[in-house]
Amino acid sequence: MTSDVIARLAAANPVPGPARAARRGPRYLLVLAAAQLFVPAAYAADRVLGISNEGTSVPTSDVLPGYSQLDQALQEMQVGATMQLLGTVNGVRIYAARNAGGHICLAIDHVAATYEKGVLCDLNDPGFPSAERQVLTFPGRLLGIAADGVATVQFVDAEGSVLDSTPVTGNLFASGTRIGLGLAAYVEALDANGTVLAKQQLPG
User: Fold this and answer.
1) What does the H/E/C string look like for the chain?
2) What pLDDT sits at residue 101?
3) Contact at 8 Å (CB) between 39 and 98?
4) In whole angstroms, how far apart are CA 8 and each of 33, 69, 171?
5) Does the structure show a pLDDT above 50 at 133?
6) Is there a contact between 14 and 117 (Cβ–Cβ < 8 Å)?
7) Count of alpha carbons within 13 Å of 187, Cβ hemisphere only?
8) By C-alpha distance, which of 81, 72, 118 is closest to 99?
9) Across all residues in the chain, what is the average pLDDT?
10) C-alpha dist (Å) from residue 1 to 14, 22, 144
11) Would the pLDDT of 36 be above 70?
């Protein structure tokens, strides 16, 4: 994806706060979009998203309706006709799908908030879900999806102090705490016994 495309996608993002379309470290694209289901060979015999919660297929046009700029953003991210509605947790409706390149993208819609909407695409390889990457979350707030077996997700800083923690239900999580970009260094996935299953570096 070219820098020109990324810049135009970032411009379409109505989420409050400074736009940061590209970062060093783990590869994410934080914009507004969704994705057409594309099934890589590794997932052909398994679940498309790689998690138990496969959701319900809905038209992409129904995900974030009424935003003409977002329609353009969806096209730039190679988004197709449908996404999977995974559910609503703490007032946040969460959608997921694989885009044309096989990467998982999330769309979130704060049901009671007009502008708190956004999308995150994981461009890492291997991406979510894998042994190394068991959480897909927005960098400044715990909002997203977790792999099977993850009971809790938490942000920690560079010294290992926990900044925020929230439970996972049906592979979904949504904390009401806004940490802000750049404060958390890692996101950790914990099982039901509190054992850390994976510690992922966040873009910074």
Assistant:
1) CCHHHHHHHHHCCCCCCCCCCCCCCCCEEEECCCCCCCCCHHHCCCCCCCCCCCCEEEEHHHCCCCCHHHHHHHHHCCCCCEEEEEEEECCEEEEEEECCCCCEEEEEEECCCCCCEEEEEECCCCCCCCCCCCEEEECCEEEEEECCCCCEEEEECCCCCEEEEEECECCEEEEEEECCCCCCCEEEEECCCCCEEEEEECCC
2) 85
3) yes
4) 12, 10, 31
5) yes
6) yes
7) 27
8) 81
9) 77
10) 21, 11, 23
11) no
In sequence order, the 6+-apart residues with CB closer than 8 A to the CB of 17 are 140, 181
Residues in the chain: 204
For residue 148, name the pLDDT band (cuts at 50, 70, 90). very high
CA 168 to chain centre: 14
pLDDT at 9: 42
Residue whose entry in the numeric block shows the structure tokens 């239900």: 169
Residue 27, pLDDT > 80, answer: no
Q: Is residue 18 reached through a cis peptide bond, with omega within 30 degrees of 0 on the bond before it?
A: no
Residue whose pair of structure tokens reads 């510690």 in the numeric block: 199
Q: pTM of the full predicted structure? A: 0.78
Instruction: Provide φ and ψ at 131, rounded to 5°.
Output: -60, -35
Q: Residue 130 corresponds to which tokens in the numbers above?
A: 């894998």
